[in-house]
């Protein structure tokens, strides 16, 4: 006998119930349908009084009663259940799903387990025609079920990581008299390797934008570490802050050959004076009130390459006059801009929607990009 209370707690803790479809799980469902040539496949989770399908083909819905469900029987025995012809099997011949719609005949279900080993659902195959199911097919079903388990556990871990990363973005941007600030970041997948920060310190707006090479969990972890380093001792001069991040990456992560491009800048609120250190990023621009564009760059390789002494980092300087705007972005934005006139595209959106609207529009287009998109705009009001 299974411990139903413990089983339900494990299912609830997984946090998968009533979540949207997941392409990673759907892919396994499609593969199972093709491999076994059955009309119906389901990744079914057994809830208190229902069976809920994370993924399904041919069943026509994501939810059904738990009572009399073949998948409930599979979970209760916590072992593979194969019924080659339900109409001639005493245990299931009177089952409402056999005697009535959809008139099931064949069923093969493999239990799915939570990380603690509790049976929480099944990967199951169904058909309205009887069929045999040999040992090789049982093994294949077991292998596919293990794959589903891994994806479900990964989804929980990713959900936690996404939540942590979301909480590391600025919850609210500082209100700076005479300036309009906007920023945002959107991951092309579940986790972003980009991040940005905007803070007000000692009469200056400090801006940071960084982009870790690659996508996924690894770059997201590195991005969090880089953000933490930049936030430590916020009164450090720009060059010193960048040099410290460079040192940490080289000492702790040098073997990973994972580079980071970054922009770290200060804007004096009173004068609009801009000081900026560019570590191989080259995507910081001042859009003048007259519509012209000024690239703001300083000589420097990406962080983590270990090839540039701190004293060789340079500070680029410019002045934001009333009506000017500083725009910094990750290279994912380049994927969604008009390739014939990218600067004109940005200028039009900024003029029509303002800084916050322009950032929102850029993030909305992340599905058209091949990389994460992060954008920061600081406009000195006219």
List the SSEs and their pairings.
Blueprint lengths: L3 H11 L8 H14 L3 E7 L3 E8 L5 E3 L4 H8 L3 E3 L12 H4 L6 E8 L5 E9 L7 H34 L10 E8 L7 E8 L2 E9 L4 H15 L6 H16 L6 E9 L4 E7 L4 E4 L5 E3 L20 E4 L5 E5 L12 H23 L8 E8 L2
Helix pairs in contact: 2-5
Protein name: GAF domain-containing protein
Organism: Microbacterium oryzae
Question: What does this protein look like?
Answer:
- The chain folds into two domains: 4-163, 2-Layer Sandwich (Beta-Lactamase); 169-380, Phosphatase 2c, domain 1 (4-Layer Sandwich).
- Helix content is 33%, strand content 27%.
- It contains eight helices and 16 strands.
- A six-stranded antiparallel β-sheet has the order 3-2-1-6-5-4, with helices on both faces. The chain has a five-stranded antiparallel β-sheet with strand order 7-16-15-12-13, with helices on one face. It has a five-stranded antiparallel β-sheet with strand order 8-9-10-11-14, with helices on one face.
- The relative contact order is 0.10.
Short structural summary:
With 382 residues, the chain is an alpha+beta fold. Helix content is 33%, strand content 27%. Strand 5 and strand 6 form a beta hairpin.
Q: Keywords, please?
A:
382 residues; alpha+beta; Beta-Lactamase; Phosphatase 2c, domain 1; 2 domains; 5-stranded antiparallel sheet; 8 helices; 33% helix; PPM-type_phosphatase-like_dom; GAF-like_dom_sf; GAF domain-containing protein; GAF
In quaternary terms, these chains amount to single chain
Give the overall shape.
Answer: elongated
Overall tally of structural domains: 2
Count of individual helical segments: 8
User: Numbering strands along the chain, what is their spatial order in the largest sheet?
Assistant: 3-2-1-6-5-4
Q: Can you write the helix and strand succession as a string?
A: HHEEEHEHEEHEEEHHEEEEEEHE
Q: Tell me the distance between the termini.
A: 73 Å
Q: What CATH architecture of the largest domain would you give? A: 4-Layer Sandwich
Largest sheet: 6 strands, antiparallel
Number of strands: 16
In CATH terms, the superfamily of the largest domain is PPM-type phosphatase domain
- Mean pLDDT level: 89
Indicate the CATH class of the largest domain.
Alpha Beta
Q: Which structural class do you get from the secondary structure elements?
A: alpha+beta
